[in-house]
Design goal:
By secondary structure, the chain is α/β, with parallel strands linked by helices. The chain is about 45% helix and about 15% strand. The protein has 33 helices and 31 strands. The strands form eleven sheets. A four-stranded antiparallel β-sheet has the order 6-5-14-16. Helix 4 (about 85-105) packs across helix 22 (about 620-630), helix 14 (about 410-420) runs antiparallel to helix 15 (about 435-440) and helix 23 (about 640-665) packs parallel to helix 25 (about 700-730). The radius of gyration is 37 Å and the shape is elongated. It starts with a helix and ends with a helix. Bound molecules: zinc ion (2 copies). One zinc ion binds near residues 211, 213, 391, 393 and 396.
């Protein structure tokens, strides 16, 4: 791959050249004449233009030969069926912030994009399409169906990629990967074969979670658990020896009793232990089953203390069955309907089989209840809460189902993955999730990796047709489309001997036969995504990319896939690369609606990021999401918040337009030194902002970083700095003019670079209108703090200044002066040095305080008709003109005092509430304490003002 950035080669397609020329022309024009910013910011045109430019110029292209320490993120691959939702928008915005920031820091950055083939989800989409065409997956056959899926992918599979570009994601799009690509599929086969050869993959008949609608196995974490109202049935099982004695068994699932192969009691339960070893007659069947003692399965306190064991239909019973060597009798078919064949094998009465065959579990339960009642074998039915599992895709109740499946033996892989987190080679952020990870990993169960679908990586195992003759069941198309088993084409029974390899074997080592049939199952989608950090970099080839970018730097992910994906990547990375796949795992919260509800189409509370981007601009959405990425569990997103940050973008735009009114003609010649108070102060604040933003980015506190950027620009830069320098700018011959304009321009330029990772579009658009070197802000350096910008004295001066202005404004409000009215004002400080400082600020105070400053010492201030306000050493006086309605002023003051008291009481109450103090985050407590102190200062000032006003009224 030729890197356009490092070789400096222009793309040579005509239309691209034209566009580039167009942009260059604009740049030159901007540098030579008065730059133009439209009256209002129009995100739509600006975003499309820059997105295209960045991609065409190859700024996001990575190369192992680029200089700088590598920094790599692999994107959590969205489903190929996906469309950008707000969860993606958050996840991707955070990654883009990190990537753009590190790129500007001069790191060799790679953000590797891609999509996941999403087995069941994609298969479902295409199957639905076929249905509308009046055909089906089965009638197409496996090969043609898979072709159809690829066709679908080619036409509509990359919707999300263009949406990602719209969000401004600076991925290296030349390296777009797909989990079913040739290269990635090669990695998958390699890993499967190696794990099999190491004895870490096996095929076995196990009870697995089965979705009777998707007709596939599901891994434990693909099952969502839920408690529902159910019943506890007490059923009597007569003793074989003496049918008058009956053992009462408690169960929530009477319909599975046909598959019972034992009854268990606690070996130390005096009620029953003498019965262990005897047999009971299983009602509704012609079988007797043993009574066994099992301390693990039986809870003496539960129900009657005797439980049935149904190894083929319950996970705990399956294990108990293993302990006691019990037979497994499956009685439900793959659609979770009672199977006549299975019932027959279980020796159920023929009459009963006829009554119940083909019923689903829920209906069978009612039927069995009736059958038992008729026979006087049901003693009791109690209400009882039962836990059911549901398919995470289609919400159908999942059934435990006995079938041959492929498993990864996980403990040997989990051990090193536990150590990697324990010893800090991988850092989970926020740290609190570390224990969740460790707990889950220590308790991990073998991973069922086979899925009975067609779309995915077909398992590289073959069976000799001759050796496994009895165990290979191929159904004809007619049977396959029959109601009972719509997708059954080929079943390889338990006991068949697989030959595993990257390619089909040529001869059978057993019989020399040459006819094979490939395992029909495909791998769990998460199997291929577990390899993502190295398969995407070219493994098993030792590519320069793999050497440069592995281990990757940061993984950004939601909590919901910590186990599905993150844990498995760690296990696979350690196994096959001998090193962790990433250093930091940053886990962000999940986005919910403003009330904290999960967003869902049925509730109608979905915020569509594409709609929001259209309405408020992409930068506003990105900034909002970053501002809410605090370490909690949920993000409560309301559109108003996005609107608020749209206003922030507009504020930046307007500030830039204001600056441009005065910046024309500035050359980058000798920059004059700006030693004025506003200049020194704003540079010091900017320096501080750079320091904090960088620190917060390093700590993954995007919420705090955005807050600091916002506060700096809105309140310090716009509210104070631009106001302070207005008189200088507006005076064409002001001696401070050139220096002030230079500072105005420099600080704006630095701020835009600081902002760029968060708001890439508006920052680029404005930056291009300022004098600059280079073609884009994307590749500029990220601002670093400069010690000589740090000015504690200017910051102290500002504090005095802000305090004084605050008092002026309070007084003006109390006295009801219209905003523009000029009045006589005085200011003094009890400390001589501070007093001198304030004296030097007279012009600025007069300007922002809208008053005429009287530069006289406090001892000479008029004693009457001046309202004095004092706080923190500063005293201001504002003349009370003859037309002031003192009575009304006093009323306002009393009202304000009351409000202050009310608010103080409220805060004080909260701080005295032990429950609140124990639950609130420390920064909230500190904030409350600060506000309470400020209110108490205000209260003192109000009291003194009240006295003064009363005195004036009395006079
Ligand atoms: Zn399902
Ligand atoms: Zn053979």
């Amino acid at each position: 791959m030729v890197c356009l950035v490092c070789l400096g080669i222009w793309l040579n397609e005509t239309n691209q050249i034209n566009q580039i020329n167009q942009i260059n022309k604009t740049n030159q024009m901007n540098q030579m004449s008065t730059p133009q910013l439209d009256k209002t910011y129009d995100p739509k045109t600006v975003e499309a233009r820059w997105s295209q430019f960045w991609n065409q110029q190859g700024y996001f292209h990575a190369s192992p030969t680029h200089p700088g320490q590598p920094y790599c993120i692999v994107i959590p691959p969205p489903n190929v069926t996906g469309s950008l939702h707000v969860g993606h928008a958050l996840n991707h915005s955070i990654q883009d912030i990190l990537i753009r920031w590190r790129r500007m820091q001069g790191r060799n950055v790679l953000w590797l994009p891609g999509t996941d083939h999403a087995g069941i989800a994609t298969q479902n989409v295409v199957e639905k399409q076929l249905l509308t065409e009046g055909t089906s997956r089965e009638s197409l056959g496996r090969e043609r169906f898979i072709e159809r899926v690829w066709q679908w992918k080619a036409t509509s599979g990359n919707t999300i990629i263009s949406q990602q570009k719209q969000l401004g994601e600076s991925c290296d799009w030349d390296r777009l990967r797909f989990t079913m690509d040739e290269g990635l599929s090669k990695s998958v086969m390699e890993v499967f074969v190696r794990l099999y050869e190491d004895g870490l993959i096996y095929r076995g008949e196990r009870l697995i979670n089965w979705c009777p609608r998707c007709l596939t196995a599901l891994s434990d974490i693909e099952v969502e658990h839920e408690d529902i109202k159910g019943k506890l049935y007490s059923i009597e099982y007569p003793l074989e020896q003496d049918p008058a004695i009956r053992l009462t068994v408690a169960t929530t699932r009477p319909e599975t009793m046909f598959g019972d192969t034992a009854v268990a009691v606690h070996p130390e339960d005096p009620r029953y232990n003498r019965l262990i070893g005897q047999r009971v007659r299983l009602p509704l069947t012609n079988r007797t089953i043993p009574i066994v003692g099992d301390a693990i399965l039986v809870d003496r306190e539960f129900g009657t203390g005797a439980v049935k064991i149904t190894p083929a239909h319950d996970f705990n019973d399956f294990e108990a069955g293993e302990r006691h060597g019990l037979q497994r009798l499956p009685i439900f078919d793959r659609q979770a309907l009672l199977d006549p064949q299975g019932l027959k094998t279980a020796d159920v009465d023929q009459g009963i089989i006829e009554a119940i065959a083909g019923l689903p579990a829920s209906k069978a339960r009612l039927k069995v209840e009736q059958l038992l009642k008729d026979r006087n074998l049901l003693t009791k039915v109690d209400d009882h809460k039962i836990a059911v599992g549901k398919c995470y895709r289609c919400k159908t109740v999942v059934e435990p189902y006995l079938s041959p499946q492929w498993f990864v033996k996980i403990k040997p892989l989990a051990e090193p993955a536990i150590h990697a987190v324990e010893d800090g080679r991988i850092r989970i952020i926020p740290e609190g999730w570390t224990n969740n990870y460790l707990g889950w990993m220590r308790d991990i169960k073998d991973w069922c990796i086979s899925r009975q679908i067609w779309w995915g990586h077909q398992i590289p195992a073959w069976y000799c047709r001759h050796c496994n003759k009895e165990l290979i069941i191929e159904e004809t198309a007619a049977i396959a489309s029959a109601a009972l088993s719509p997708s059954a084409r080929l079943t390889i029974l338990q006991g068949a001997i697989p030959i595993v390899g990257k390619t089909a074997p040529s001869t059978c080592p057993g019989c020399g036969g040459q006819q094979f049939i490939q395992e029909p199952d495909v791998l769990d989608t998460w199997f291929s995504s577990a390899l993502w950090p190295f398969s995407t970099l070219g493994w098993p080839e030792q590519t320069p990319e793999l050497k440069t970018y592995y281990p990757t730097s940061t993984l950004v992910t939601g909590l919901d896939i910590l186990f599905f994906w993150v844990a498995r990547m760690i296990m696979m990375g350690l196994k096959f690369m001998g090193d962790v796949p990433f250093r930091d795992v940053y886990i962000h919260a999940l986005v919910r609606d403003a009330e904290g509800q999960k967003m869902s189409k049925s509730k109608g509370n979905v915020i569509d990021p594409l709609h929001v981007m259209e309405q408020f601009g992409t930068d506003a959405l990105r900034f909002t999401l970053a501002s809410m990425a605090s370490p909690g569990r949920d993000i409560k997103l309301a559109e108003e918040r996005i609107e608020g940050y749209r206003n922030f973008a507009n504020k930046i735009w307007n500030a830039a337009r204001f600056a441009h009114m005065y910046l024309a003609g500035i050359k980058e010649s000798q920059p004059p030194t700006d030693r004025s108070f506003p200049g020194l102060w704003i540079r010091s604040r900017l320096n501080d902002t750079i320091q904090i933003v960088t620190m917060e980015l390093e700590a993954y506190r995007f919420d705090r970083a955005t807050n600091v950027l916002y506060q700096f620009f809105w309140h310090e830069y716009c509210d104070w700095y631009l106001e302070l320098i207005k008189p200088v700018l507006q005076d064409p011959v002001h001696p401070q003019g050139p220096a002030t304009r230079q500072t105005l321009q420099d600080t704006l330029e630095v701020f835009l670079r600081l902002l760029h990772p968060f708001m890439p579009f508006i920052s680029e658009e404005i930056w291009q209108t300022l004098p600059h070197e280079g073609k884009t802000i994307v590749t500029q350096s990220y601002p670093v703090p400069r010690t000589h910008w740090h000015e504690p004295s200017a910051e102290e001066t500002f504090r005095l200044f802000e305090q004084s202005i605050g008092l002026f404004r309070t007084a003006r409000v109390l006295l009801n002066y219209p905003p523009g009215k000029e009045v006589r004002v005085f200011v003094a400080h009890q400390e001589p040095a501070a007093n001198t400082t304030l004296g030097a600020l007279e012009q600025d105070l007069a300007h922002l305080g809208r008053g005429q400053i009287s530069p006289i010492p406090i001892s000479q201030w008029p004693t009457s008709n001046v309202l004095r306000l004092i706080t923190g050493g500063v005293t201001v006086g504002v003349s009370v003109e003859g037309d002031v309605d003192l009575k009304k002023a006093l009323d306002r003051l009393v009202k304000q005092t009351e409000e202050t008291d009310k608010e103080s009481e409220r805060l004080d109450g909260k701080l005295k509430n032990a429950d609140f103090v124990s639950k609130a985050p420390p920064e909230v407590i500190t904030d409350h304490q600060d506000r309470l102190r400020a209110l108490s200062r205000d209260r003192a000032m109000l009291t003194s003002s009240e006295q003064q006003l009363r005195a004036m009224l009395g006079a």
